[in-house]
Amino acid sequence: MRLVKFDMHRKSNVLSLRIGARLIIVIALLTGVIASPAWALTQNEIQKLLASDGALGDDFGVSVAVDGDTAVIGARLDDDNGFDSGSAYVFTRSAGVWAEQQKLTASDGAANDLFGMRVAVDGDTAVIGAEADDDDGFDSGSAYVFTRSAGVWTEQQKLTASDAAEGDWFGSSVAVEGDTTIIGAERDDDNGINSGSAYVFTRSAGVWSEQQKLTASNGADFDDFGNSIAMDGDTTVIGARFGDVGNLFDDFGTAYVFTRSAGVWTEQQMLTASDGAWEDQFGVSVGVSADTVVIGAHLNGDNGAGSGSAYVFTRSAGVWTEQQKLTASDGAADHEFGVWVGVSGATAVIGAWQDVVDSDETGSAYVFTRSAGAWPEQEKLIASDAAAFDDFGQAVAVAGDTIVIGAPRDDDNGPVSGSAYVFSAPVPIFNDVPLDYWASSFIETLSANGITAGCGGGNYCPEDAVTRAQMAVFLERGIHGSSFTPPSATGIFDDCPVGYWAASWVEQFYADGITGGCSTNPPLYCPDDNVTRAQMAVFLLRSMYGSSYKPPSATGIFDDVPVTYWAAPWIEQLYAEGITGGCSSNPPLYCPDDTVTRAQMAVFIVRAFDL
To answer: C-alpha dihedral over 239, 394, 180, 322, to 10 degrees?
Structure first.
């Protein structure tokens, strides 16, 4: 027998939430605990967004979407067209400031429609789900398309399923890109009771037409296929949070990738968690960006029951493979990390709406960035004015350098009025070093420590070879710190006159005993010669331990560095220090005569000086 689960979509739960909100405000008024909000921006919190007409119980922030300088925020329990009819708000950014552009409501909105339960935006098109609309029977659902022209949004068309039926919840998830929108109907019954489906609509000459209905190839009773949808180009991923993997009603959860070819969508692959467990609800949230999919499993129990997790999958040659499981570094029971996910390029944002911060269940979100095929946690986001039961992180969205996070139970405009917060997403420091470049984290660490400002024009030139002059500057800053300025040059080397740009650094390098130059008679340094990997081993170890340091004898670790090779002891000590693993592990090679690139140098220096 399937257990009945609490579901924030249900009208009965929505009603109890609203009644609870009214009780809260009565108690607050009697006890005098309502006060004017006071908050300050955190380091990367850009702005807090509130509805201009926000009111008690609106649930503003229950859904969020962002594209470029436009954000859409859902307020499913707003009452403009009747109790809990719902609305959505469009905000736009100008000169770094977000302002409300327009409030959207359904032209035929009615009580309990929950318009704004889900929102999506792409350019000048927004799609708003109203899963509890009753056009084709109680809770059959609908979705509305709005378009913007000259800064004004107009309802373009109302969408309903061609085979709509009572209780389908059409509009329980929405996605839009260009002239295509996909609408989830998680309680559709094609493959069994509440098995779920999704509908593809396309626009031609301003008119939207249903193109195709999508269902899971192995859909079954109560899967809720379509509870979450994300789309990027010709790829869409659809969650089925109650999908069963091994046993009937195990609720491990599943997700399905569909791809479009010649206008037809075909199921490409079903995704499941490698370590899925009973009632994880893998698929409760999904995100896709090019060949990367992120899927939330908010009830996974790695850090305690209901702590939650998310999974990253990548596609190669049409096959999706699980790349990494993400959990919060400070995860704990009932935090529900993964309740909502978003991904854009090399940045993933994961909501944990029940996270406890400073003893209060305020909610949070976590940012992960991809580097060298791994997804390390970069930062945890918390509202600057976080308060208990705000549900910050219930909804998240990320696009480019912008993150939007909903807090639908924030109280600025009254209990459960709701809010949303805009944060800056991680962006590359250098134009030519994307976040997912293999050495990105090392290069950015080098920059953060003042060792380099790049090669000019906002670039780092990671694949350029390192010259002996550049190396002198890098290593001297590593030895003495970023604020170090060497004494004026005196002209020690014939090929580094006092007017040479790095002459003072080269001479300090010599004074520190790190180098004797490339020739003694005449005295030359060869500043424009490229540094080899063998030379770098010597320079690094002398920089670390001083000019008198001598490494142990070589034993023959690398096949291309025999014990008789001039720099063999230095290379093997660099390996022993964990600064390099060589250039190949099978066979074990070091490539001693290869030139060092600026990217490789960043890795060497960060590891050598423990930056």
So the answer is: -40
pLDDT (tens digit per residue) in 465-499: 999 999 999 999 999 998 999 999 999 999 999 99
Within 109-220, where are the H helices? none
E strands, 319-469, are 319-326, 337-344, 347-352, 356-357, 360-361, 364-369, 377-381, 395-399, 402-407, 419-424
Is the bond preceding 426 in cis, omega lying within 30 degrees of 0? no
Which part of the chain has CATH 2.130.10.130?
Answer: 11-37+45-424
H or E stretch at 440: helix 440-448
Q: Tally the residues of the chain.
A: 611
CA–CA dist 571, 540 (Å, integer): 10
Angle subtended at Cα 53 by Cα 122 and Cα 364, rounded to the nearest 5 degrees: 60
Tokens of 221: 């009773």
List, in order, residues 6 or more apart from 587 with CB less than 8 Å away. Answer: 559
d(CA 548, CA 265): 68
Q: In whole angstroms, give the CA distance from residue 63 to residue 340.
A: 10
Task: Give the H or E element holding residue 118.
Answer: strand 118-122
State the Cα–Cα distance between residues 194 and 185, nearest whole angstrom.
9
Q: Of 71, 157, 76, 41, nearest to 416 (Cα)? A: 76
- In tens, the pLDDT along 217-263 reads 999 999 999 999 999 999 999 999 999 887 767 789 999 999 999 99
CA distance 114 to 346: 33
Q: d(Cα 461, Cα 598) in Å, to the nearest integer?
A: 7
**Token output for 68:** 């470029």
Structural tokens at position 52: 């201009």
pTM assigned to the model: 0.80
Q: Is the CATH number of domain 11-37+45-424 2.130.10.130?
A: yes
Question: Distance from first CA to last CA of the chain, Å, rounded?
Answer: 57
Q: What residues pair up with 530 in beta bridges, in sequence order?
A: 467
C-beta of residue 410 within 8 angstroms of C-beta of residue 353: no
Separation of alpha carbons 394 and 414, rounded Å: 19
